[in-house]
Each structure stands twice: as structure tokens, then as C-alpha cells.
Amino acid sequence: MLFSATKTLMVALAVLGFAASAPVDLVERDQKVIIGYRTMEKSKAEAYNKQGTVVWYTASGVQLGDVVYLTPAPGEWKAPDSYWHCVIYAEQSKWLTAKKAWIPETYDGKKLWYHPDSIDSYLKTVEYQTPDETLRLSKISGDDAVYQLGIPKAMLGKTGHLGLMATCKAKASELPQHAVNYKTVQNAVGTPQYVQHGPPAAHLSSSNILSFSPTHPHTMPPITRAQAKHKFPDFLPEASRDASPFALRQPHRTGRNTKLVDWIVLNPGTSATYQDPSDPITRLFQPIFEQSDYRYYLTLRRSCPVERPQTEWLMLAWGSADIRNKFINSAEHQSLTEILATWASERLVQVSLIDLSQTLGAAFDHGVFQTQYVGPMEYYELMAVYFPEDLAGTHIKELNRTNPFNLGNLIGSDVYPLAGLTDWQHGWLDRPVLYQGQRTLCLIYFLRWENSDREHEYKNFRVTINGKIIDHWEEFMTPLRQNRMLGYESQHVSLLRQSVGSMLGD
After folding, report:
1. Residue 248 in contact with residue 241, Cβ under 8 Å?
2. Which of 88, 222, 373, 380 could cross-link 456 (Cys pair, CB 3.0–4.6 Å)?
3. Computed from CA positions of residues 334, 340, 344, 345, in that sequence, does the dihedral angle turn out positive or negative?
4. Which positions ≥6 away from 486 have C-beta within 8 Å?
């Protein structure tokens, strides 16, 4: 299914950019970096030049609130030919650490764009509690090819939050032609909206990438209908538990035909590189996979979610509860517990279990994460769906058989939009989590997409049959809502499969 056969696979997070003239993310200028460009009337541009910084003028539009709007590259804001163009610089250290948030068009059924009060309320529900000190990001409404950055009034000034400087010219061609990559800016929460043409390829640091495959790039995922938070999901603290908090959850199933996933979240991640001999997880599991039972029934995946590359996931996928129980009673499990306990001294470590054994209608009936070879890159959405803790058994039974519509299973086998979803599994987390301050049950969907563009095609595909408009993604969401869904969040990963027969491969 979602993961390959029995060996450790490292993550490739590769982001495809749009065609621009050799743009870069940040360009230094005497400890200043370009953070965007602004287009305005000549008189206002001259005021910028006179002050040497951004001057406050009430915004003509309020998509992201009453802020100063910038675009990633010069000349991207549609304006009369008489308008001037300005390049905006910030102090590099201040820019990198400034709070930033992607603003969705709607959130929890409430429209945010063009509603400043709603945007402020939204910002207070995510990581950042200070709207006046948070930079806002989104695509430009009505222009599906350009992103924008909004700077609140409180953050302006040469000596303010960003240390802003500005230079304006009559023509955009007279300015630096560097494009800022808003999709990969640091210290940002939320998910970039899908655009038809994105920013330049991401220049992620090695600490955020475990393995990189330049021949298989992927764009950032389209926006989901709820933004993934810092803790994904937000596990409740356990007041009492007999075993170590870093031990795998105690067995509750037996038998060889079960599908269980131990999900370990590390925040921040370990920055381990592929098959690093000094990495304790590599050293622990290499000899384990030399045993035939583990080779057949266990898959280990490590990944960094695209939305939160500083976070690392370890996933132990089991096709047999008996083999998992054998591992829990072994010295190797004790070693894993000790590794996690050591890591917990300098990072957050959370251990949970996902049980996929009761779900019905999955694409394939083999052990979880075991699938046919579909190429070196796999792209997944991990979707967490939240329900009230008192959810009735009748609702749970119905949700166990709720799956998205699927047409294909081999990547590249069909160009029809609905074939972009090639596989899925879903199952329940073994313990309640917090969602918007409420204790909830969490249903996890593993959705394997051909790539992020195909995901966007699928979720936006509409077809008219006998005069009726059919929206297959909405038809998937409808029974979730009917069975008391409170909301959902998604994160994405790109996974690099290794060659068959390698020590840590398939």
C-alpha cells in the first residue's frame, strides 16, 4: 500500500518552480535582502525615495487587510504604465525570523479574504497571536499565477520589525530582476495556495532534506481546506501510562493479516542523511531487516512533511500484529525506546498508533504500505479528519467504509483527472487528540497522488452528467460531514524509493 516492502526509505522533498529568469530566494545587499516589489503612483514612489523606506498609505484593497502589498518579482502587479516600481529590502536576520502566515480564502466555513477582522481572528487561532506583527501571504485574488506579501503598518520603518529600505524607478526593468520565493520563506505557518505558475525552485537547507532527487521535482501541494498547525496532530499529554512514553503502544491485536502503523513525530527532526552510518535508527534497523519475518511484514519510512520540513516522521508499518508484538518484546524495541528517550532531551517526541485493520474498501487488500513498484518517487497526502470524542459506533462503522473515488492504481497509467489518486488507506489514531481546543477522535487518510498537480486536478475536477454537476472530492467530503466531522488538516511528503535488494531498499 502506502509504503514499499521492508526497508528504510529516505525522503526526497523536491519543489518545482515556475519558469523565471534565473531567480533566487534572497539576494544580499549590505546585509539587506530583497523581500518583494511594489507598484504605485509616481508621487508615492518619490516619497519612498525621499524617506528611503516604505511610507504608509491606506491600501486600496483589503484582501489581506489594510497592509502594504508586495509581489515576488518586479512588474507583477497590474497597473497603468505611468506607475513607478519599487524594490523593498529588509534586514536579513529580521526577515528570516519575522512571523509569517499563509491566509486561506476561507477557514472553517468563514470567508477571510477582504474581511480584515476575520483575518485577525484567524491569525489568533494559529501559531501567531499577534496579527499586527505577522506578515500575510496568499495568491492574488483574480490572478492565479502570482503570490503576494502583506506587511502590517506596525512593521514598517527603517528601524522597525524588518528594518525596511526602498528604492523606486520609473520602469520595472530598472530594478533588480531577482524573484523572491515566498513558498519557502522561513518561520511561516499554513499552506501556500496552488498557482498555475509557482515561484522558483526551493533552496532548502540540508537540515531539511534527507534525500534529494532533482530528476523528480514536485510543486508544493495545493491548499487544503484547513491549515496544518505546528503540532500535527496535537496529541494530548498522557497522565498515566505503564510503559515508557517512548515505547510503542501495547498490542491490542493478534494475527498476521493486520495493518498497523506506529507514527513517531520528532520536532525538530534529526537532520539524518540517507543511510548515515552514525544514525542510530539506521544502525538499529539494518540487522533487523536481515530477518525474514521483518523483511516481509515491516516497512520503515522516514519523512519530513512539506508544510513543516523541520519536523520528521518515523513510521513503522506492520502487515502482522504478531510480528509487531514480537518486536515489542525484543531487545531491539528497548533500544528504540532508549533512542527516542535520548532524542527527547532536545526535541518533542510523540508516539502513536494508527489501526487500519477495520477500514473497508481500500484500494488493495495486502499488508499496509505494500504495493507494486510504481517508480522512484511517491507523493502522499496525510489527511487528519477530526470527530467528537463521543462519536457513536454507527458513525464509526460508516466512516470505516468512506473512501475517495478512485479510477487508477499505476502512476502514469491514465491521464484522466480522477486517476491522479493512485492508492489510499485510512484508519483511526489509538488515542484522542486536540483540535481547536477540543478533545477529538482522529481518522487518518493516507492518499497517494501521482503528483501535486494531479492532486489539484482531482480536487477541482467537475463533470456534468445528465445535467447534474458531479464533484467527486465533494462527494468524498459529504459523508465525513454527515458523520459529524469537525474539520480536517493535511500535510504532504515526497518519498524516495530505493532499488530492490538494497540493504535499506524495497
Report:
1. no
2. 222
3. positive
4. 386, 387, 388, 435, 436, 438, 440
Question: Which residues are 29's β-sheet partners?
Answer: 32
Per-residue pLDDT of 58-116, as tens digits, reads 876 788 988 999 999 998 887 788 899 999 999 988 998 899 999 988 887 788 998 89
Q: Provide the pLDDT for residue 119.
A: 92
| Torsion region of 105: left, alpha or beta (phi above 0 gives left; psi -120 to 50 gives alpha) | alpha
Neighbours of 128 (CB within 10 A): 17
Residues 506 and 497 sit within 8 Å (Cβ to Cβ): yes
Hey, is 497 helix, strand or coil? coil
Quickly list DSSP for 207-242.
GG-SB--TTS-BPPPPPPSS---SSSSEEPP-S--S
- Dump pLDDT digits (tens) for 348-382: 888 999 998 766 544 434 444 444 444 445 788 99
SS3 label, residue 39: strand
- DSSP string over 5-17: SSS-B-BB--BPP
Residue 473 has φ and ψ, to the nearest 5°, of -70, -40
Determine contact, residues 317/299, Cβ cutoff 8 Å. yes
Buried b (16+ CB within 10 A) or exposed e, 66-87: ebbbbbbbbbbbeeeeebbbbb
What pLDDT, on the 0 to 100 scale, is given for residue 499? 40
Cell triple for 191: 499552506
Helix (H, G, I), strand (E, B) or coil at 97: helix
Report yes or no: 154 and 131 within 8 Å, Cβ to Cβ: no
Q: Is the dihedral of CA 44, 76, 100, 226 positive or negative?
A: positive
Instruction: Tell me the domains of the chain and their CATH numbers.
Output: 28-200 (3.90.175), 234-243+261-319+349-496 (3.30.70)
pTM above 0.85, yes or no: no
Is 254 within 8 Å of 324 (Cβ atoms)?
no
Query: Residue 308 in contact with residue 251, Cβ under 8 Å?
Result: no
Q: Which residue has the cell 518519498?
A: 495
Q: How far apart are CA 156 and CA 87, in angstroms?
A: 15
CA dihedral over 417, 196, 61, 56, signed as positive or negative: positive
Helix, strand, or coil (residue 264): strand
Cα 280 to Cα 264: distance, rounded to the nearest angstrom: 15
Q: What is the full DSSP assignment across 86-98?
A: EEEEEEHHHHHHS
Residue type, 136: R
Cβ–Cβ < 8 Å for 456, 222: yes
The whole-angstrom separation of Cα 71 and Cα 337 is: 48
Q: Which amino acid is at 109?
A: G
